[in-house]
């Protein structure tokens, strides 16, 4: 089953896979690194977990939705 296509205004959801849009040297993370939204925090903040190929977390940090690109691994249904 395919998810309905998101609108540009929709916020990311818990467990969405995302990529960073900018470098974050203070957090030890670079543009393009892929993480998972672990929790929705107050005021639009998101708790992200970055894990290696073995599933071990190497970074846990907060971000704002504007700092992220939600990734999609399957085609989405187009409304219309």
Which key features would you list for this structure?
single chain, 80 residues, mainly beta, five-stranded antiparallel β-sheet, 34% strand, globular, disordered N terminus
Describe the structure.
- The chain has 80 residues and is mainly β.
- The chain has a domain at 17-64.
- It contains no helices and 5 strands.
- Strands 4-3-2-1-5 form a 5-stranded antiparallel sheet, with no helix packed on it.
- It is globular and about 45 Å long.
- The chain starts with 16 loop residues before the first strand and ends in a 10-residue tail after the last strand.
- The model is unreliable at 1-5 (pLDDT under 50).
Give the end-to-end Cα distance, rounded to a whole number of Å: 17 Å
- From the alpha-carbon coordinates, what is the Rg to the nearest angstrom? 13 Å
Record field, number of beta strands:
5
Name the average pLDDT. 86
What share of residues are in beta strands? 25-35%
- Helix count equals 0
Look at the helices and sheets and give the structural class.
Answer: mainly beta
Brief overview:
This protein has a domain at 17-64.
List the helices and strands and how they pair.
Elements: E1 17-20, E2 34-40, E3 46-51, E4 57-63, E5 68-70
């Amino acid at each position: 089953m395919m998810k309905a296509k998101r609108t540009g205004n929709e916020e990311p959801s818990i467990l969405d896979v995302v990529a960073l849009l900018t470098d974050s040297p203070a957090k030890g993370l670079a543009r393009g690194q892929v993480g998972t939204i672990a929790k929705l925090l107050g005021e639009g903040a998101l708790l992200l977990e970055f894990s290696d190929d073995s599933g071990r977390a190497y970074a846990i940090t907060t971000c704002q939705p504007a700092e992220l690109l939600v990734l999609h691994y399957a085609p989405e249904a187009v409304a219309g």
